Structures are given as C-alpha cells and as structure tokens.
Amino acid sequence: MTENTNFLENIQDELKQIVQPYQRDLNQKIKKSEFIKLCIRCAGRDDFLRLDELLKSKIAEDIEVDEILETCTPFFESLGSYANAKVEEYRIELIEDLTLLCQEAELEIQMDFPRFTVLKGINGEIDFSTRCTTINKKVLKSIDPRRILTAILRLKHQLYDHPYDPQNFIDSLCRVYLELIKKEKLIPGDPVSIQKFYLEYVMSLQTKIFFQNMDKGKFKGYSLDQFSVDIWRYFQAGIGGTSQGYEFQLTPGRNKSLWLMDSQGESRQITAISFHNQQE
C-alpha cells in the first residue's frame, strides 16, 4: 500500500512540474488576450481616459515585445497617440470649466494640475486614471467639474460658514492649555503635545448631556481640518493674543504631530502648542 502511495505521489509531483510552466504561460496568454479585448471595448466606447491608462501599463509593453502579438504595436501606438491627445484636451477643458464654476461661485481657485486649492485649508487632487477627485482626503468618485464644485462648497460651508470670533477662539484654546499644564504639573509656557491638546480641546466642546450619556449622537465633532482653518483665521485676524495677555505658539516637528496651518497659511507638521504670558 505504501509503495503504491509513493508511486502515485511521485507521478503527481512530476506531472505538476511539467504542467506548471505550461499553465503559467497559458495564464499570461489569457491575460494578454483579455487586455486586448478590453482595449477594443474602450475604443468602441471612445473611453479615452481608460485607454490612456491601459496603453501606458506594463502589460501593454509586454504585448509589444511578444513575438506572437507584436503586430498589435502599431495599433497600440495609434490608439495611444489618440488617447493622449484627447486626455490633454479634456484636461484643459476640465481646468477651464472648474475655474469658471468657482469664479461664478465667487471662489478663488489655484490650479497646479492635478492639484488645486480653494481657500486656505481646502485642497484637492484630480486623478484621471481612477476618475476620482480627492478633496481633503475624502474621495469623490467623479471628475465632473460640477460635482467637484458641489463638494468644495459643502466643505466650505463646514469650515467657514459658521459664527467665528477669533478672540473667543484663542481664549478657549488658552483655557484648555492652562487646565492641561495644571493637570500635567507643568508651568505656563511649557509646550504640551499637540495630539493630547487636540483631544482635550475637542472634549471641552462637549455638553454636560454628552458626559451623562456618551452616545455618539450627542458627540460634537471637531475635525482636524476645522481646527487648522480656525487657527489660520485667528492668525489672519491679527488680534495679538488672548484676553489675559498670553501669546500663542505652535512648535513644528515630526514626532507625534498633526498637520496644521501656520501664520503664513502653510500646512506644517506641528508637535506641540504653548501659551506665553507677554507681560512676563
């Protein structure tokens, strides 16, 4: 019984060794065949965005040097030139349309394609290959200028279209800072972790009802984007510090940091926050 088992196992192993290279080659042929069929379908739909992506891929290069399929090369080249020209034309139209729509909405847009900026704190990137637009790390599955504008306006409403008093804002930051350094047994002026501070500040915004029943529906969110924009608006106000005479300071660095805007409106990695008494 053991001899038969060993015999059969050896035969299976030998056949596997023979068929595996054949199967790999067959899989590659099927993959290339499906790729060519996909290019044909995209050409039939005039899907030049997808064609441009496909014809710049590694498998397209592999097909062009394949002895059996190398006759595809001139057709790939023609399709590639056509798709590239159409993409460039579409890119220009998209930039023009998005810029015009923003102007009509009284928004100034700075375009460095594929990236763009609208107001401080609203940053986007258009990805033709995936037909998606990322705005402040949120993905919009579209590159339609109208849908992009809608997403921008929604974010603008969240970040800017609410009552904002720079003096109250900086005073509230200072109160949380002073409470935190007291808890940590530090002295005014000492830096505290920005991540820890951010958590404490968000908790300071919650109502008494939330602490009695910490249901997520009662939680008042305060995004990092909002925090960054509010800091930028404080700097822009130029009020010079808190009502109690404390000056605000952010410390740049990479260790346990958060991305926040500085006084120049540039996004930087910030590791610590502190308040210094200007009268001392």
Ordered list of secondary-structure elements with their pairings:
Blueprint: H1 2-44, H2 48-54, H3 58-64, H4 73-104, E1 109-112, E2 115-118, E3 123-127, E4 132-135, E5 138-140, H5 145-159, H6 166-183, E6 192-193, H7 194-204, H8 208-212, H9 224-237, E7 246-252, E8 258-261, E9 267-277
Antiparallel strand pairs: 1-2, 2-3, 3-4, 4-5, 6-9, 7-9, 8-9
Helix pairs in contact: 1-2, 2-4, 4-5, 6-7, 6-9
Describe the structure.
By secondary structure, this protein is α+β, with helices and mostly antiparallel strands. 54% of the residues lie in helices and 16% in strands. The chain has helices at 2-44, 48-54, 58-64, 73-104, 145-159, 166-183, 194-204, 208-212, 224-237; strands at 109-112, 115-118, 123-127, 132-135, 138-140, 192-193, 246-252, 258-261, 267-277. The strands form 2 sheets. Strands 1-2-3-4-5 form a 5-stranded antiparallel sheet, with helices on one face. A hairpin with a 5-residue loop joins strand 8 and strand 9. Helix 1 packs across helix 2 (48-54), helix 2 packs across helix 4 (73-104) and helix 4 (73-104) packs across helix 5 (145-159). It is extended, with a radius of gyration of 29 Å. The mean pLDDT is 90.
